[in-house]
């Protein structure tokens, strides 16, 4: 049986996290999703940024 990793990715010795954020478009008002893979320390900065 295979294990499924949802939010954290592990490559070699580096530990990475995939963060997904919903952003509202100023032109149309529709929401889009912005995805980024980064180290766990940078996640809070990414989510706080507009």
UniProtKB/TrEMBL annotation:
What InterPro entries does this protein's entry cite? DUF4295 (IPR025379)
**Which Pfam family is one of this chain's hits?**
DUF4295
How is this protein named in the record? DUF4295 domain-containing protein
- Origin species, per record, is Dokdonia sinensis
